[in-house]
Write a structure and sequence with these properties.
This protein folds into 2 domains: about 1-40, no CATH class; about 45-140, no CATH class. It is about 50% helix and about 5% strand. The chain contains 8 helices and 2 strands; from the N terminus they run ββαααααααα.
């Protein structure tokens, strides 16, 4: 039995290689395993990601958004989780809560003021959600293609 960690979940693979897609018993390739696991792994942001890759924007903006949605931006909380020693994990702006993607993009009072000014400057009336993927979805679907 093979145990893999995907998106924080343990996926147990007990099927034989022929069930994964191998031509004969015992055949195995990484691409076959990837296809098999990709079909079984559930991702709550799957629809958001499909929309993300269709946006007409610079690649660095799309990739940064992708990293934010996955929680892979090197925030202080993320760095600590990776074993990097820091003096503090508190937000660099407000110094009141842990610096996470959720906090530095939506919850920090300083950042909320910046977003409000940006939206006002470009003429968008916008209600912010408290979840990054919902925030992205509402902004994406509110803008013309």
């Amino acid at each position: 039995m093979l145990r893999l960690h995907i998106s924080g979940k343990v996926v147990k693979v007990t099927e034989r290689c022929t069930d994964v897609g191998g031509e004969e018993a015992g055949s195995y390739t990484v691409s076959l395993a990837y296809e098999f696991l990709a079909k079984r792994a559930s991702n709550p942001h799957q629809e958001v990601f499909k929309s993300l890759w269709k946006i007409k924007a610079f690649p660095n903006i799309i990739i940064t958004t992708w990293k934010v949605l996955l929680g892979r931006v090197p925030t202080r909380t993320c760095l600590r989780r990776r074993g990097i020693m820091l003096n503090t994990v508190l937000c660099a702006f407000c110094q009141t809560k842990e610096e996470s993607c959720q906090h530095i993009f939506l919850e920090c009072p300083f950042v909320q003021k910046v977003w409000t000014l940006c939206f006002k400057w470009i003429g968008i009336t916008f209600v912010q959600h408290n979840e990054l993927s919902k925030h992205f979805e509402s902004f994406f679907f509110a803008t013309p293609e």
